[in-house]
Amino acid sequence: MNIWPPFLFTGIRVQHIGEDWRSARVVLRKRPWNRNFVNTQFGGSLFAMTDPFWMLLIMHAIGNDYFVWDKAAAIEFVKPGRGDVFAQFHLTDADIQSLVDEAASGGKVLHWFDTDVVDGSGEVIARVRKQIYVRRKPPKTATT
Hints:
Blueprint: H1 5-8, E1 12-17, E2 23-28, H2 43-48, H3 53-62, E3 66-77, E4 85-90, H4 93-103, E5 109-119, E6 124-136
Antiparallel strand pairs: 1-2, 2-4, 3-6, 4-5, 5-6
């Protein structure tokens, strides 16, 4: 993922993805080309560093029998990011079981996940919310 253009050219680096795809850690390095007019982290980059992870973690956790999409998002800028910033994602067994249980009937499931973007001292720079859509795929039918 580190050579994916939206990450490569913005200073975003994936530091860790768990072998079981239940966790991830991402850093946004402050660089001259990704700062804003007042020399702090660009808000679009703060959002981009969090964008794909909940969907990816859930897709790997629940398997190919489900549609998984990003549905909605929101970001709250809490304070200026003056240096490198970090985001961590952790998908619990309870999260996974809840999504699978809710999707069992074939209806859509909409679930919000929250992520704090923090600076090197752990202070919150931004809060990001992502709404994930999950739906069980219809069973495949045999054709004759």
